[in-house]
Design goal:
The chain has about 450 residues and is an alpha+beta fold. The chain contains 20 helices and six strands.
C-alpha cells in the first residue's frame, strides 16, 4: 500500500479490539471521557458558543446527532463542532504536557459522541475503545512533532485522532482508514495567533478538528480517497507542518503495546497548562506565609527563563489586566495574582477577569529573566508586609502523571464544571452520568451518556 507510517497506523486502528487494550488504557480512556464531558458541560454557556450555535442551527440539516443542552439534533459534523468547541472553551481540558500542550480529548470525544448518536448501536465498550485509539493517535503525532511552527496542535493534530476514532466506530477497513487519515490531513489547520490575540477561534478550532474528523471518516467510508503518504511524503505532515524538528520513529514506537493517552495530564485550573506550575507555586507560597488577602503582600517576583519572561512581561498590559477571557487564560501575572489574592483559580475567577484586589496586585508583580535556568523553569518569590518571604520553585504541575488528580478531585472538577453549564443541571442528571461513565463497559448503548443533557 505505502511505506509511510500512516499505513501501519491505519492497520493498528482497525485491528485493535477492546480485549487488546491493557487495563491502564481503559482506565485512562474512562478518565478522559469523564474530564472532557465535564468540560463540555462547563463550556456550554461560554462566550462564542451561542453565536456558533446560532449560525449552525440556522443552516440546519439532517437531524442526526444531539448537541449538549440545546434540545436539537444537527448533522453529525456540526454536532461534533458544537460539543467539542464547548469542551475547549474553558481551557480546562486534558493536556499532553510532553507533546506541545495538545488537548486531544475534545476532538476525539466530540467526534465519538456525534458518530455514536448518528449510527446507534454503539456500546460502552465500543466507545471506550474508540476514545483510547483516538487519544493514542493524536498523542503519537504530537510526540513525534518535536519543534512546532505555531500550529494550534489541538486542531492541526487533533483532526487525525478524531478521524481515527470516528472511523473505528464506523467499522472502516484498513484501506478506508488510511483514506480517512489522508482526508483528515487535508483538513489539518489551526494556529496559535488566536491565542496571542485572545480570540474565540481558539475554542472553535478544537471543534473544527472534531467536525473534520467525522467528515473524513464518513467520506472514506464511501470510497473517497485521501493522501496515503501522509507523514513522510514529499509534502507530508512532518515536512510541511513540522520542518523545524520531528522524529518520525516516535509515531510507531511501541504501537499496540503502549497507549499514549495514558500520558495525559488533567487540569486543576481553567487556563493554559504551561502556567499551572506557577499557580501551584503561588498557592504554596500563600499557604506558607499565611496570606489571607492581597493587602498582606508587599512584593511578588516571578523569575523565568528569557523566553518565558519575554512572553509574559514584554508584550504589553494584557498579561496584567486581560480584557477578554482567552487573554486571561494565558496571562501569568494575572493568574498568579489571582491565586495569591483569592486563594484559588477557578472558572469564576478567570471568566470574571479578576477582582480589584487581584488586578492591583497583578500590576505590582515583577518579572525577571534569568539565564542559565532550564527551559520553562519558573520560581516565585513572595514577601509579606511584615517582612517574611518565601521562594517556591515551580515543578511538575498538579494533574500530571507524576502528581495525578485523585478520583475525588476528578468528580469535584466535573461537578464544578457542570455548575457552570447553561442551563443549570440537576444533581440527579450529574449522578446518572457519573454512574454511567463508571460502568461504561457494561452499557449496551453509549447514547445513554447524552440523554440527561440534551435539553
Amino acid at each position: 500500500m505505502t511505506d509511510d507510517p500512516a499505513w501501519p497506523l491505519a492497520q493498528h486502528i482497525c485491528r485493535t479490539g477492546y480485549a487488546d487494550l491493557p487495563a491502564s488504557a481503559i482506565a485512562s480512556a474512562r478518565r478522559d471521557i469523564l474530564d472532557t464531558f465535564g468540560c463540555m458541560l462547563g463550556g456550554s454557556g461560554s462566550a462564542g458558543i451561542n453565536e456558533l450555535f446560532a449560525v449552525l442551527s440556522r443552516w440546519g440539516g439532517i437531524e442526526e446527532s444531539r448537541v449538549l443542552l440545546r434540545g436539537v439534533r444537527l448533522p453529525a459534523p456540526q454536532a461534533a463542532l458544537m460539543n467539542a468547541s464547548m469542551g475547549h472553551a474553558l481551557d480546562f481540558d486534558d493536556t499532553l504536557d510532553t507533546g506541545g500542550s495538545i488537548h486531544p480529548g475534545v476532538s476525539v470525544l466530540g467526534a465519538v459522541l456525534a458518530v455514536s448518536d448518528s449510527i446507534g448501536g454503539v456500546s460502552g465498550r465500543d466507545l471506550l475503545l474508540a476514545v483510547a485509539l483516538g487519544l493514542d493517535v493524536s498523542c503519537r503525532i504530537a510526540l513525534a512533532s518535536t519543534l512546532d511552527r505555531g500550529w494550534h496542535r489541538t486542531a492541526a493534530i487533533g483532526v487525525f485522532g478524531a478521524a481515527a476514532a470516528a472511523g473505528k466506530l464506523l467499522g472502516l477497513a484498513p484501506e478506508q482508514m488510511l483514506n480517512a487519515l489522508g482526508i483528515a490531513y487535508s483538513h489539518a489547520a489551526g494556529n496559535r495567533q488566536c491565542i496571542l490575540d485572545g480570540t474565540l477561534t481558539k475554542r472553535m478550532q478544537a471543534g473544527q478538528a472534531a467536525s473534520a474528523g467525522v467528515f473524513s471518516a464518513v467520506l472514506a467510508q464511501t470510497g473517497f480517497t485521501g493522501a496515503h503518504n501522509i507523514f513522510n511524503g514529499r509534502f507530508g505532515f512532518f515536512e510541511l507542518y513540522q520542518p523545524n524538528g520531528y522524529d518520525a520513529a516516535v509515531l510507531l514506537r511501541d504501537l499496540g503495546t503502549a497507549f499514549r493517552g495514558e500520558e495525559l495530564s488533567y487540569k486543576p485550573y481553567p487556563c493554559g497548562r504551561p502556567l499551572h506550575a506557577a499557580i501551584d507555586a503561588a498557592l504554596a507560597a500563600r499557604a506558607r506565609l499565611d496570606i489571607e488577602a492581597a493587602d498582606d503582600i508587599a512584593t511578588v517576583t516571578i523569575e523565568a527563563d528569557p523566553a518565558g519572561h519575554a512572553d509574559q512581561f514584554a508584550r504589553g498590559p494584557a498579561k496584567r489586566r486581560p480584557t477578554q477571557i482567552v487573554e486571561a487564560q494565558f496571562a501569568q501575572p494575572f493568574l498568579v495574582a489571582t491565586a495569591l489574592a483569592c486563594g484559588k483559580v477557578g472558572i469564576a475567577e478567570v471568566d470574571g477577569l479578576g477582582d480589584a484586589a487581584a488586578l492591583a496586585l497583578s500590576d505590582r508583580i515583577a518579572g525577571v529573566a534569568r539565564d542559565g535556568r532550564p527551559n520553562k523553569s519558573v520560581s516565585i518569590t513572595v514577601q509579606r508586609t511584615d517582612g517574611r518571604a518565601v521562594t517556591v520553585e515551580a515543578t511538575d504541575p498538579i494533574g500530571s502523571p507524576q502528581k495525578p488528580l485523585t478520583d475525588a478531585q476528578f468528580e469535584a472538577k466535573f461537578r464544578d464544571c457542570a455548575g457552570n453549564a447553561a442551563p443549570p443541571l440537576s444533581d440527579a442528571s450529574l449522578d446518572a452520568v457519573l454512574a454511567a461513565i463508571g460502568r461504561l463497559e457494561m452499557l449496551p448503548d453509549a447514547r445513554q451518556l447524552m440523554t440527561p443533557f440534551t435539553g
